[in-house]
Amino acid sequence: MAGDSFFTDPSKKRKNRSNRQTSTVHQNTKKRKVQPKKSSTEDNNNDSEESVSDIDEEEVASDIFDSDSDAHKDEDDIDEGDDEEEYKTESAADKRRRLAKQYLQNLQQETETYDFDAKDLDNDIIASRLQQDVAEQKGYIYKFIGEKLLLNEAQPKTSRMKAIGISGLSVNYPNLFTISKDMELSKWDITDAKSKPKRTKYIKGGVQFTNISKEQMNNGHCDELYTVAASPDGKYVVTGGKDKRIF
Questions:
Q1: Which residues pair with 201 in a beta bridge?
Q2: Which residues share a beta bridge with 173?
Q3: What letters, b where the CB count within 10 A reaches 16 and e where it falls short, cover 201-236?
Q4: How far apart (Å, rounded) are the C-alpha atoms in residues 14 and 150?
Q5: What is the 3-state secondary structure (H, E, C) of the chain?
Q6: How far apart are CA 28 and CA 11, in angstroms?
Q7: pLDDT over 90, % of the chain
């Protein structure tokens, strides 16, 4: 009677089945948890092997570079020692001569590397000079001389001039040259600073010089004068004017 299934309690059977299911679930989870532990240890072993191999390669490379640098240092030391022994007995004059030759050789090597041509340099200098001359003629270049003038030490003097409209002057002590719009060139003596300037010579143009003569002494300006320049000794004077003539 006790072993008959009819008299057994069905709730006990359900509990046993549920216990079996839970035990199997726990066993499966335990098995699943063990597997990642094995994989992590394998990965760590692989990483450690790779890191060890990398360290070995770095050490080998550093040893190679160190050996190369040491070899170069030894060669440089040997070369310096040979040079010192070679030039140990030379005098100061020989040393200067040797350094000068070495300097010239270095300059020659630099010119060869840069393809230096003296002709190109001359052309550049000539071109820049021509540009400067053209700019000066057109009035694009100015010279500032105001700061150089000693105005405090200047002693102004006045003098009557018969010319009309002074248009230019040139000073070469002790002479002063002036020009005017009425085509007159005058030479003045300014030796004595206490007295007035004295006119020593003058020449005047006019309509009679409109036609150019074959004889140079018979020519002159026929219009207003614009500029004048004199040599340092006062022997030569050049004038230019509206008539496009230079005398």
A1: 187
A2: none
A3: eeeebeeebeeeeeeeeeebbbbbbeebebeeeeee
A4: 129
A5: CCCCHHHCCHHHHHHHHHHHHHHHHHHHHHHHHHHHHHHHHHHHHHHHHHHHHHHHHHHHHHHHHHHHHHHHHHHHHHHHHHHHHHCCCCCHHHHHHHHHHHHHHHHHHHHHHHCCCHHHHHHHHHHHHHHHHHHHHHCCCCCCCHHHCCHHHCCCCCCCCCCCCEEEEEEECCEEEEEECCCEEEEEECCCCCCCCEEEEEEECCHHHCCCCCCHHHCCCCCCEEEEEECCCCCCEEEEECCCCEC
A6: 26
A7: 0
Residue 203 confidence (pLDDT): 83
Q: Does the global pTM surpass 0.85?
A: no
- Side chain identity at residue 115, one-letter code: D
pLDDT recorded at residue 22 = 44
Residue 25 has pLDDT above 70, yes or no: no
Number of other CB atoms surrounding residue 240 within 10 Å: 17
Residue whose pair of structure tokens reads 């020659």 in the numeric block: 108
**Which is it for strands 175-180 and 184-189: parallel, antiparallel or unpaired?**
antiparallel
Q: For residues 134-157, give the mean pLDDT.
A: 78
Q: Which of 228, 245, 239, 224 is nearest to 171 (CA)?
A: 228
